[in-house]
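Write out structure tokens for Chlorophyll a-b binding protein, chloroplastic.
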Amino acid sequence: ETSTEEHIHYMKEGGIPGKYPDFPPELFSLPNLYNPFNFPERDVQAKERGLRVEINNGRLAMIGILGFLAAQTVPDSVPSLRNHVLPDYNGEVMAPFGENAIIKSIDAIRDATCGFLACKP
């Protein structure tokens, strides 16, 4: 994006990368969608902690996906998924929304976790 006489690029006059200016109300009647509730800026330590938490969350999500892939590829490789918590995928895209799919999933999760949690008869 280049600057013109009517529009000066926000980075041209000492802008900060990642900090976007508000639109002038005479041009757009939209609120500031980057920070719509006007939350205060966090300090550096809180930002660093939030970044670490988000990175760790992503790492755990990747480990979880690898667990599902391992369970699908090698039978009984993931003991907690041994009782078919998730049914085998046969190409039916609407299977999760089918008849009694949620009830079957809840029953399968309960049966699979009985070894780890106290189960009531």
